[in-house]
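Inverse folding, one chain.
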């Protein structure tokens, strides 16, 4: 059994503030993420924004990771390292993943962006991935089991002829970057531990247009790509189990109020 930390009201408020900062940083980027801009430049903007708000980027230096964010373009599933020579082009899709540390509390969220005119297939993948996250969030309430999150995500993705990455998962967060529980995005119905009020964790499905497997770039040991070179998309929120349901701590768009 995992040791899932039940957060106090004070801790929840601190985590919420950190999550909101990460979410607002993603909002801020909307006018900068466009054709001709490098992912390295975007990471610099993220670093400046986080620093200006008296916080730190959790990824910077984490197990040797060199940047303040993960920016994953097209066939990159996750952990794409921003760089000056990675230039965004018309038709690209990308995920930007930000984790902030504000007053000692961690907030984690990510979303997709489209560059110029993207294909109908890319648009469909992005929409399906966001819906996978929404389905997973709806499974968050006291007494439900964690496996039901992965069950509904995988069932829907398969119904759309997509696959779910099983090598990476959601996780507890708040007092540390990664805590218990592990939140799988492929799981059996009614498996896993019971959810209880005060639990805080991420749901972050990675959905592939082709095969579910990934491969690491040997050059950096971080960048995970689809094995078949097909597109991948991801959305992520940090959520809180409340006494009667869910509170999406990283929601800055008002989608879950």
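Residues assigned per position:
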């Amino acid at each position: 059994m995992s040791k899932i930390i039940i957060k106090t009201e004070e801790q929840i408020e601190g985590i919420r503030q950190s999550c909101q900062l990460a979410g607002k940083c993603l909002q801020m980027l909307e006018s900068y993420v466009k054709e001709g801009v490098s992912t390295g430049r975007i990471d610099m903007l993220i670093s400046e924004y986080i620093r200006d708000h008296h916080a730190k980027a959790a990824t910077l230096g984490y197990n040797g990771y060199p940047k303040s964010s993960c920016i994953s373009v097209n066939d990159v599933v996750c952990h794409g390292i921003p760089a000056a020579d990675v230039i965004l082009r018309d038709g690209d899709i990308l995920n930007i993943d930000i984790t902030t540390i504000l007053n000692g509390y961690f907030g984690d969220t990510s979303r997709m962006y489209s560059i110029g005119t993207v294909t109908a297939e890319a648009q469909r993948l992005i929409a399906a991935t966001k819906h996978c996250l929404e389905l997973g969030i709806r499974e968050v309430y006291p007494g439900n089991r964690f496996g039901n999150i992965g069950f509904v995500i995988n069932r829907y993705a398969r119904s759309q002829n997509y696959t779910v990455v099983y090598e990476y998962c959601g996780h507890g967060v708040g007092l540390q970057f990664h805590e218990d529980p592990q939140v799988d995005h492929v799981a059996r119905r009614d498996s896993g531990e019971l959810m209880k009020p005060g639990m805080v964790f991420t749901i972050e499905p990675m959905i592939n247009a082709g095969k579910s497997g990934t491969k690491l770039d040997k050059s950096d040991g971080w960048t995970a790509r689809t094995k078949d070179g097909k597109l991948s998309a991801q959305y992520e929120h940090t959520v809180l189990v409340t006494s009667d349901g869910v509170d999406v701590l990283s929601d800055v768009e008002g989608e879950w109020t």
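The domain at 9-248 is CATH 3.90.230.10 (Creatine Amidinohydrolase). The chain has a mean pLDDT of 97.
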